């Protein structure tokens, strides 16, 4: 009977119950009906135990660092740098949007923060340049999914915590896939720019202008270098790196650039605390949910079903990508990783798939789901920022989603894309 908690959970999601409550109510009800009161108390005790983790402290720190840099005007400096480098191309502002997302990813690791921060600046600017509002919102939403792929990445921290993998290995493995997504989107923009005669946003910048823009963006661009360099050099752990990123953001914003004041800090702290609380509650609920998954023997049943479909790992990877893509349409990346990671990960590792490779397959696929209709979170954020309906953004984003799906399959069937960088640093054999 306990195995029916999954259909009940999906039913709760369909009727609009928040994910946090659905994760606890579905297994809780079935444990109660099954007479397993002791396991029921274990379920809710694990909500706290799931959050009580030092590695997870990296998530609120990285979110706070992103809020500090956004409030301190650092986002604008990244946009100006991107414009100096790519604004002269046909479809220049669309290219600027994508490059800005790639750079912003190294600061926040959040698709929602990317959509909100960059969208509020670039969507009106693109509309003024002659782009339709739905296209501007669509390219903003599509490029924002790079945020959780290029390090630092909140969902990779969650995956590493749940599955016992190295955070540094996952961060390194996300670099090339994130760049590949960005280049793929730029290629699609180039094709569309030639077909629809998109405008260039400015004349080609001179080298002195590019140098000036680079100097203004130097300190923000140094953030991912400090984070990754410190982790790989053994100077600090990923959690300590997140705290260092916060301290660096405060120093840069308050004392170097002087774009952040002490009056701004209470609001910044409040916003970061609210966002972090939502994520950590979901992690705690999902870890409790994971307890019932193991009690129900659902992983064993699903493993037997999957292995019964085929014994060819490539075919199974193709099928799992389809499953993850559908899941990503309805469930956010974090909860989906915590629920499905412990079920699917061991199956594919036993089939000979490198655990870091599978982590990137799962993370990138579910991250793209953030921009996939009907429930993609960044679609709703882009709609809120642009004032455009979600339905119209969903239609305009389809060419970009097609590119991202192609990248997902490239990552899946060419392991070197995600494994080469961590292998060079000794994290993968």
From TrEMBL:
Keywords: Cell inner membrane, Cell membrane, Membrane, Transmembrane, Transmembrane helix, Transport. It is found in: Cell inner membrane. Pfam families: DctM (PF06808). InterPro entries: DctM (IPR010656), TRAP_DctM (IPR004681). GO terms for molecular function: transmembrane transporter activity. It comes from the Bacteria. The chain crosses the membrane at residues 6-33, 54-74, 94-123, 135-162, 168-193, 214-236, 242-260, 272-293, 313-331, 336-353, 359-385, 397-417. Residues 8-417 form the TRAP C4-dicarboxylate transport system permease DctM subunit domain. GO terms for cellular component: plasma membrane. Its main location: membrane. It is a multi-pass membrane protein. The complex comprises the extracytoplasmic solute receptor protein and the two transmembrane proteins. Belongs to the TRAP transporter large permease family. PANTHER family: SIALIC ACID TRAP TRANSPORTER PERMEASE PROTEIN SIAT, SIALIC ACID TRAP TRANSPORTER PERMEASE PROTEIN SIAT-RELATED. Part of the tripartite ATP-independent periplasmic (TRAP) transport system. This is TRAP transporter large permease protein. It comes from Puniceibacterium antarcticum.
